Amino acid sequence: MASNLDITSTSTIFNSNTINPRDLTMFNAYRGVTDFTNINQFSQYESGYQALFVLQMPWFMEKLEPTLTESFRHMLEYEFRGLDGLPDVTADTMEITDGINTQRLINKVTYDTSVTVSSSYFEKTGSLITRWSELYLTGIKDKNSQAKTYHGLIKNGKCMDPGPDKEIFTMLYVVTDATMYRLERAVLLANCQLTKAETSMYNGNRNDINNKELSIEWNCFPIMNNAVDAAARKVLEKVNGIKINYVKSNNDGGLIQSTALNVTDADRNTSGGSGKIIYSELDSTEYEYGIASTPSFAAGSSNANGGKITGGGMINPTDLGQYFTGAKK
Q: Among 87, 123, 144, 191, which is most exposed with the fewest C-beta within 10 angstroms?
């Protein structure tokens, strides 16, 4: 049975907050006869398990249209299907030559931090994505005068210090393994700004009746490091209600501790607020799909979903923001 590599505590890329690679040196793999009966040696990375958490919405949009902005945040998180545009770590080289032969050696390692990432979403009746994006962009710069107006917030004295810090999103992109519990990698997307409002979606023909899939694009500053992984680990534990102990000697890279977090009525926000909860449900055999009524959750009570409110809900952004000192609450 495979064991994990002994990753030193000084490593920031391989760290105690993510799944560590298995020790493959005890396996024969593809050399000679491949022993497919020892399937443990072929533990594969599986793509397609990712989530997005919005830690900060643009300040001026929260002041201008708080309800629509909260709906936009909810849509970004709960209808998220994937992300494209993250950069690679690349090497540049210098040449050493005698005039006939050439040797290239690494002289620079770079990670592009000026990138545009994108995600696909389906537009809704009322054009939430398109119209919210248009309001956001034209508030930063009017499309005719090029003035920064925040649609009246500056003129009416609601914002006396306009600037980029009032206009940015902060988002956490998380990639997990197939359990959706254990962290593979996390990226903090800082200083995100939308790049377009896709008003061309209103083009149409009489015989072309269909829904509209839009690409939301952000310019951003991507950050990958140990601190981001540590925060993402806490977010996953809070969302899933289960603690993960990444033990170096564990065979699977991260021992799943079946210890549920202490979920209180305050976490469930059942006092008539906006219905934000913490837990996500991963097992469809236990999910009630709105069949049962939502319980009152008196102290110590639980429902058939193991203490989870039927139908799901939102993650409270103030809970997530505590893991990033730069995120405004």
A: 144
How many domains are there within the chain?
Answer: 1
Q: Has residue 19 been placed in a domain?
A: no
Give the pLDDT of residue 288.
66
**What range does the domain containing 83 cover?**
46-93+102-321
CB atoms within 10 A of CB 213: 10
**Angle (CA) 327 165 157, round 5°:** 120
pLDDT 10s digits, 244-275 = 776 554 455 555 554 555 555 455 443 333 44
Q: Examine residue 41 and state whether it is found in any structural domain, yes or no.
A: no
Evaluated on CA atoms 327, 272, 80, 308, the torsion sign reads: positive
Single-letter amino acid, residue 72:
F
Count the Cβ atoms, other than its own, within 10 Å of residue 96.
10
Name which of 272, 270, 280, 266 is nearest 318 in CA terms: 266
Cβ-based neighbours of 205, under 8 Å, separated by 6 or more: none
DSSP string, 217-252: EEEEEEE-SHHHHHHHHHHHHHHHTEEEE--TT-TT
Rounded to whole angstroms, the Cα distance separating 313 from 276 reads 5
Closest by alpha carbon to 246, among 14, 10, 13? 14
* Per-residue tokens: 43: 């533990």
Please tell me the pTM assigned to this model: 0.79
- Nearest CA to 315 among 58, 49, 76, 84? 76
Residue 136 in tokens: 């956001």
- Residue 155: what pLDDT? 96
Contact criterion met (CB below 8 Å) for 23 and 248: no
Tokens of 263: 């979920």
Model confidence pLDDT, tens digit, residues 56-100: 999 999 999 999 999 999 999 999 999 999 999 999 999 999 999
Burial class of 47 by CB neighbour count within 10 A (0 to 12, 13 to 18, 19+): exposed
